[in-house]
Structure formats: C-alpha cells, structure tokens
Amino acid sequence: HENGEIEDLEVLVVGMGFGGIYLLYNLRKKGYKVRAVEAGGGLGGIWWWNSYPGARVDTSLPFYELSDEALWKDWTWKERFPAQEELQQYFQHVDKVWNLSKDVQYNTTVTGARFDQEQNKWTVQTDVGTTFKCRYLVLATGFAAKEVIPDIKGLETFKGPAFHTAKMPKGKGAIDFQGRRVAVIGTGASGVQVIQELGPIVQQLTVFQRTPNLALPMRQRKLNEEGEQARGKRDYKYLFELRKRTTAGWDYSYNPKKTFEVTPEERNALWEELWEKGGFNPWLGNFSDLMSNREASDLMYAFWRDKVRQRITRPELIDDLCPDTAPSGSPFGTKRPSLEQRFYEVIQQPNVELVNLNKRPILEVTPTGIVIAEGNNATKECSLDIIVLATGFDAGSGSLTKIDIHGTTGQSLKEKWTKGTRTHLGIATAGFPNLLFLYGPQSPGAFAIGPASAEIQGDWIISCLEDLKKLGKTRIEALTVAEERWAKLTNDLMNMTLIPTSSSWYIGANVPGKVREATNYIGGLPAYTKAIYDCSDNGYEGFVLN
Ligand code: NA7
C-alpha cells in the first residue's frame, strides 16, 4: 500500500519483539489478513533499540528464544547470555525462516487509534501518514517502549551527544566512545552493562549512582557448537514445555523450603551453589520466602554484600557499592538484579569516578559538563564529551498510554488509567473493544521469560480470535467488574511480597507521579495460564462478545 491509503485488515499487530513476531507468523499461518507496524528499523523490539555498548540479555539459552523447531534446528548460539548483536542476528534468522518482513511496515510509530462503533473496527494513525483499518488491534509494544528521562536542569543545553540507553544513535552518526570523557547516569541493568563496557575504553568515566545495584554474577561463557549445543538441542522440546510450567519460565522454580527452616550450614551451602551457577539462580532459585520475609531478604543481602566486598580493593567505595545493610528502597530480591561480568573491577579503575547522588547531587548540566554539589556549598564541574542516561523505563502501561487511543467512552486510555491500570487478564480493558495487549501490564510480561510469556499469551489471543470467528462475533470487550477483580488480584499478589517496599519499576515507583501498583502479574506462568483458559472455557467470563 502507498502512504495515506487505508488498509482493511482483520488484525494489526503493533511492535515486532518476540510477542508481535509470534502473533504475526501464527495468525498468518491460520489465514488471517494481518499486518504489523514497528517503530524501529528492524525486528527484535528492545533488541533493535538497545544497542548501547554491552547490551546483553539476562536470560540464558535456550529459554530466551522461540520454541518452533523450524527456527532453532539451524540456529547456533555463541554465548550463554547473548549480546545485542547476536540477538539481532537471531532475529534476522527468524525473519528469513518465517518470512516476516514482507508484512511489516518498519520505521512507523503508531500515534493514535479510534474505535468505530458502527463497524466494530479500529482506525489506526501513524507518524508517517499511513492509516490502517482493522477489526482487532493488538499492541505488542513491550514493557520498555517509553524511556524515563530525568528532569535535570540544563540537560538540553549540553553540547555533546546526550541520549538514553535505548536511543543511542546507530549507523551514520554513531557514537565513538574511545578516549572520550563520558558520564553514565543510573546504575540499573543497562547502567551496569554500559559501565563495565565503557570503563576500559574511555579516558574518563563518571558514574552517577542513586541506588547501588545488587548485581549478581552472570557467569557468562561461550557455548561449544558441536558438543554442547547439539547435545542441548535433544532436550529443547522438553525444556520449552518445562518453561511454561515454572514460575518465571526457567527450568527451576523457588526452592520449596523457607530460609529459616534449614540449618545455617544448609542455607549457606545452597547459596554458595546458586552463586556458582550464576545468572538469576541466587534470586529465583532461592528459598521460597526470599521475597516475602524481610529477615530472609536481609540475611541474603549480607551474603551478597560479603561476596562483593571480597572484590573491593578500594575501601572508600564500600559504603557506596555494598553498604552494611540493604540500600533504602532496595531490599534484596525486590528489584530485578543486574547480571554483571566485571562491573566491580571496572568501577574501581583509576579512570572511573563514582558519584553517590545521595551525598553529591547533580545541580545542573552545562554545555560542557555536569555540576555537582560537593558539600559545604562547594560545587564541582565534571567536564564531559558524552552523557549516557541509563535511567530506565516507564514500564508496562507507559508503552500503551503514550499512544492516543480512544475507545467507546470518550476517554483516552491514558485518561482512563490516570488513577490506576485496569485490565482483564492483562489482555484487554473495558471501553476499548477489540483492543488486545500482548506482554502488557498486569500480565506475567517482564516477570517471566519474554518468549515464554509471549507464546502463552499469543496462543490464547489466537484461540480467542478463532473462537470469535466460529461464533460469528465481531466484538469482544472486557467488563469493568472483571478488570477491577484482576487489578485487585495482581496487586494482592504483589502485596504478599516485599516488592512494594522498594522503588522498583515492578510497582511503578521509578517514575515520578506514577500510581504505585503492580505493573506485572507475579503469580507465575502456570497460574496465569490456568486463569486465561478458565476464562475462555467458561464462555469468556468477564468479557462481552457481540
Ligand atoms: P532500571 O533498572 O529502572 O534502572 C534505572 C537506573 O537509573 C536506576 O539505577 C535508577 O536509580 C536510575 N535513575 C532513574 N532516574 C534517575 C534520576 N533522576 N537520577 C539519577 N538516577 C536515576 O532501568 P534499566 O534500563 O537499567 O533496566 C530496565 C530493565 O531492563 C531491567 O530490569 C532488565 O529487565 C532489563 P534508582 O535505583 O531508581 O535509585
């Protein structure tokens, strides 16, 4: 189609990360007239956008890939936790095998959508002028499509490149960090990765840290092609089944025992074992009360602290990196930990300065650097060439409310969710018929492995559209009472944990002014799968079909 022309589709999928890709391919296979739009220039969602040095997934293989044998049989991974470049190659492989790009309009951002009640169809506007008409609009825009840009005085006056980690210039105009003076603001997962990568190559790195990261060892390693991968692939079918049946999509769940049920020797033995395994093992393979019992969390914090302190050779950094007790707003386990490779060594390099923002806050950004308060009314300007904002995302709802969507009530989605997100099963919301979310807020989304969440929800959405077709219906809408129930459930589950005591994006606490509520359903993949299929088995309970 040409720009400006309206395409009349059964389904328009927005976003080509794992979720959108899975849906586009499988709906097309079933004969649907379906197309996709993607804001980026290629497939991969966050793996297209996040191209900062060191960007790497925190989920190991084979759990972080699609389960179709046609895709994995001829694909070989090089590392246990692949970097963005390798993930990009994987998505190109998926594109080739599944032949997706012919149905994707790239470099196109959906700006708004209106529901036509006469026809039960959506009209969808984009920033390039193309308009789509579709029966069902599926937003697979991911949990991290809206960046958090800190409100720092003078930021816009900086002369050099200043960008969020998800928006680093690519291709022509790409950034050369070699020998430059660089600032990184934020020490979350993205910050840790970019810091440990840049430290060794830049002239000077200044790290602005608000809260120390309770980073865990990644234990990265190369995968041996013939032996290890070929052997591993014999288990793939079993592993892909298994990932649907564990809480977060791994081949393990929490240890059924509680922290204080075992002897100190048993406890330490398990912790040492999990520490050696690396990855999220010390978090998601830990005792079952790690995230609900503050004493358990604090004891695990002490274990973590002592491990990290063994690597600190500059004692003046101990309080900033691994203080005696868990940092405020960050009990162990309540934030998604980063997986580090050599972060604690890099942060201690002579060319790296750690600025603890609680002691030395940023006063302003000038055209040439960042001015910080040094105490006793003294200030200091850090001279800089480049500023990297590793300041995170308006997770979950932010990816959806940034689109100007109007359903049947006159209220936009953003207006509807001002006082709190409301969805039925994390998939739909009242007043917005035929609008479906994949990997959206109040779904397992980012609290479970991405491809596993996406496939579980994607399969359900497909079976839902198939049922509607069989029943001769053209409209599905969530009921208010059902979404109130689901919001209560997702928040009740979250409130059973310590997460609400943290400043994590899991409860929207990282965005000033955002409602504090569960951004994800944390009841685990098996319980979620049961909930969505109980709903459809009971005649789409909580929805009205017309
Ligand atoms: P995160 O994990 O939300 O980290 C953001 C970091 O930025 C974190 O250290 C924040 O400190 C810091 N931050 C945010 N706003 C500010 C301001 N205004 N000033 C200073 N520092 C600030 O985002 P990531 O991109 O690292 O990771 C997101 C997810 O992607 C991650 O969980 C993985 O799933 C992959 P804070 O801790 O809030 O004090």
UniProtKB/TrEMBL annotation:
InterPro entries named among the record's database cross-references: FAD-binding_Monooxygenases, FAD/NAD-bd_sf, FAD/NAD-binding_dom
Alphabetical UniProt keywords: FAD, Flavoprotein, Monooxygenase, NADP, Oxidoreductase
One Pfam family matching this protein: Pyr_redox_2
Gene3D superfamilies from the UniProt entry: FAD/NAD(P)-binding domain
Family affiliation: Belongs to the FAD-binding monooxygenase family.
TM region(s), chain numbering: none
Coiled-coil annotated spans: none
Molecular function GO terms recorded: monooxygenase activity
Upper lineage: Eukaryota, Fungi, Dikarya, Ascomycota, Pezizomycotina
Record-annotated FAD/NAD(P)-binding domain positions: 10-226
Protein name per UniProt: Cyclohexanone monooxygenase
Cofactor(s) it depends on: FAD
